[in-house]
Amino acid sequence: MSDLNQIGEQDNWICWLCDTKVDPDASVNSDRGPSADSYSASKAKKGVATVERLAHRDCNTMRGKISPVVPWSKDHLVFDPAPIFETVERLAKKGGREAVGRCATDQEAQEASEWLLDRLARLSPGTNFRTDITAGAGQFLIKLVAG
């Protein structure tokens, strides 16, 4: 395992699961204190790479018990949002594209897409994602594309 300070600096002291600040001076025994999480990132046809990421102790503990929930931003109105963590894991393994949500306007879809890509850059660094927005039936479908 790497030094916790190195991992914290690598991740800018932001929890990779909940995307909020981690106090570098907090006790590692505190629920909101820093911990190192070994995350296995599958790459299609390349095996499995283990990456150490910074997480709050309680976020890391909960990830061991249940699949993590990475919430969508409350700043964007997205209908039928797909679960971000599971979608990212599937696309990182097999590639392809998946519908991840719908928005009422093109502008809202663009803003939600920008937020999602920014969030995924921290959640799954090293995996190249882009979004496609398709208009139809008075709504705008956001699709996440890996590769």
Write up this protein.
By secondary structure, the protein is of the alpha+beta class. The protein is built from four helices and five strands; from the N terminus they run αββααβαββ. It has helices spanning 4-10, 57-65, 84-94, 106-123; strands at residues 34-43, 47-56, 96-103, 129-136, 139-146. The strands form two sheets. The chain has a three-stranded antiparallel sheet. Strands 1-2 form a two-stranded antiparallel ribbon. A hairpin with a 3-residue loop joins strand 1 and strand 2 (47-56). It is elongated. The model has no long low-confidence stretch (mean pLDDT 88).
List the helices and strands and how they pair.
Blueprint: H1 4-10, E1 34-43, E2 47-56, H2 57-65, H3 84-94, E3 96-103, H4 106-123, E4 129-136, E5 139-146
Antiparallel strand pairs: 1-2, 3-5, 4-5
What are the main properties of this structure?
147 residues; alpha+beta; 4 helices; 5 strands; 31% helix
- Given the helix and strand composition, which structural class is it? alpha+beta
Count of DSSP-assigned helices: 4
Give the tally of β-strands. 5
Radius of gyration: 16 Å
* Spatial separation of the terminal alpha carbons: 29 Å
Proportion of residues in β-strands: 25-35%
Largest sheet: 3 strands, antiparallel
Q: Helix and strand succession? A: HEEHHEHEE
Spatially, the strands of the biggest sheet line up as: 3-5-4
Mean pLDDT: 88
Give the gist of this structure.
The protein has helices spanning 4-10, 57-65, 84-94, 106-123, and strands at 34-43, 47-56, 96-103, 129-136, 139-146. With 147 residues, it is an alpha+beta fold.
